Amino acid sequence: MTATTSQLASLNQWIEEVARLTRPDRIHWCDGGDAENQALIARMLEDGTLLRLNQETHPNSYLHRSHPDDVARVEHLTFVCTAKRDDAGPNNHWMEPAIAREQMRGLFEGCMRGRTMYVVPYCMGPIDSPLSRCGVEITDSPYVVANMRIMTRMGEAALKRIEREGGFVKGLHSIGELNPDRRFIMHFPEELEIQSFGSGYGGNALLGKKCHALRIASHQARGEGWLAEHMLILGIENPRGEKHYIAAAFPSACGKTNLAMLIPPRGYVRDGWKITTIGDDICWMRPGPDGRLYAINPEAGFFGVAPGTSEKSNPNALASLQKNAIFTNVAVTDDNQPWWEGLDKRAPATDWKGNAFDPASGNPAAHPNSRFTVSARQCPSWSPMAEDPRGVPISAIVFGGRRASLVPLVFEARDWTHGVLIGAAMGSETTAAATGAVGVMRRDPMAMKPFCGYNFADYFNHWLSFDKAGANLPKVFHVNWFRKGESGDFLWPGFGDNMRVLEWMLKRVEGKAGSIETPIGHLPKIEDVNLDGVELTPEAREKLFDYDREGWAHELASIGEYLDEYGARMPEALRDEQRRTATALG
Ligand code: GTP
Ligand code: SPV
Ligand code: MN
Q1: Which residue owns the Cα nearest ligand 1 atom 5?
Q2: Per UniProt, where does substrate bind (predicted)?
């Protein structure tokens, strides 16, 4: 039964061990090639896992309808299992490793009977980059294999690197019976191991993504002096041809994909400004020889939110989706094209569950967390620098959340420590990317609340540690595209117009714009932000560009309480910074 094809004894051994436990009918080692992919797709079309979309408008594109109870990440079932509870921190659910392993053993026992076990070797990052890291995911889901092939460098080349290096992250996944009561996503960062059972959904099942590239990698990065972050990476080129790279952390479904693929307003394009895309979700960065932070996108594809994606909001994403895409839980039109809320004015025929769509029901046709999976190379703004093994130097780090009130459009940190406080204090209203209530304000430091594989107090300390002799660190900013006015409408047009804010940041990076110094940081002078062609109401001008001292005094008190939840482990430097800011606000 076991067709062992690896040169690495430890890998073969693990595969055999897992096969003895899970009892698959067959084992398939994935080479990542076209023939393999076509065969997988053919099988999935046969058994209904995939449905063929209109092949004239969307060649080689397919629809997957998940189990209706399996549509988002499940944070309450996601655990970080470190030997000591405190090492996982109050920011994670924790289970004792031995107990977690025992529990997972019970679930995995015999779970692949009648199924094929796929062995998926993958590389996170350019295959020849020293910043990249490899893993092997074992899964019984061909849908996961097809997605991993798009999202990572999967197959033969990755296996060769793994055999050369000898080490890799072990990920074991089974869709189980998709029973929400038998579903767990367990991480063992100290053993570089992931075990996920009972879900086929993105962040729960494509183990290279959040499980490896964030939870395991953040833990590993702390030990090795680098950072694994929930950030997009974009390139910005000015009319003189000078290039900068910006990394931005926004919580799930808060605008990373959109900002990464931004098309600047017409005047900017005319003047020769250009935005290029390196990554839309995850960023690994470490100091280079010149003291700057160099970043790679560990992923090779986009697993993006469909609703709201349109020719107007994100034309680059739409162009990427013309072919070779997998759509999950979107609706379809009567001629079998993928459709979601906000795409266009057509009426969908069938909803995400496969039922005839009834507009009178009041329910959306596409699931609010419906997604597309597509190769990054198909994006018109994709930058070949995404393949550079050295990574790209980061000039600015941006934090941002979904905040209907209080938080202005943009402000800049005084220095690195203040920047770390701004990141640590990030708050955002929850979205459909995770199960649970939507629209509830919660602290989501650095957009890593669901993804940091260790104690946040230690994580902030790690961030602070980058400020040392020889460092040449990026400037740190905070943005809020989601401020609302009295009427409940967004005050800022957002999307392409966010370019105006990026331009102000670059001016600050290059020392070409002044600012207004306030206790919360440097606010732009409104005349330094190019607002040509933007209509802002007086309410918008005030709320986007000013700050409410009293409201911020409350906010800082609440941030102080939040930091205190981590007790003595919270770095004193961060508590000091919070106290300084609170005092300045009076
Ligand atoms: P994950 O893939 O979950 O990590 O999400 P993300 O951070 O990549 O978010 P994405 O870019 O997919 O945007 C999520 C939602 O926010 C979509 O419905 C967008 O239309 C909306 N959005 C993105 N940018 C803006 C903006 O500048 N303004 C407003 N109002 N909405 C935005
Ligand atoms: C997110 O939720 O932040 C995503 C989608 O990017 S998932 O892959 O499920 O994490
Ligand atoms: Mn994300």
Answers
A1: 253
A2: 73, 201-203, 252, 369-371
